[in-house]
Amino acid sequence: MNTLSENQAADAGATLSCLIIRTGRADCYAHFYPALYQLQLIRDGAEEKVDLGFSGSRLLERLLQNPGEVVAREELMSHAWSDRVVGQGSLNQQIYTLRQVLADEKNREIIQTLPRRGYLFNPNFLSTPPAAEPLPEASEPSTEDTPPAPLITVDPPQTTRNQRSLLLALPISLVLLGGALLLYLFDLAQPSELLSNQLKIGQATVIYVDRDELHLQQLTHAAQPLAKRMAALATSPTDLVFGMASDYYEVLCVAGQDSVRSLMVHESQLERIADAQLQACLP
Question: What is the pTM of this model?
Answer without folding.
Answer: 0.44
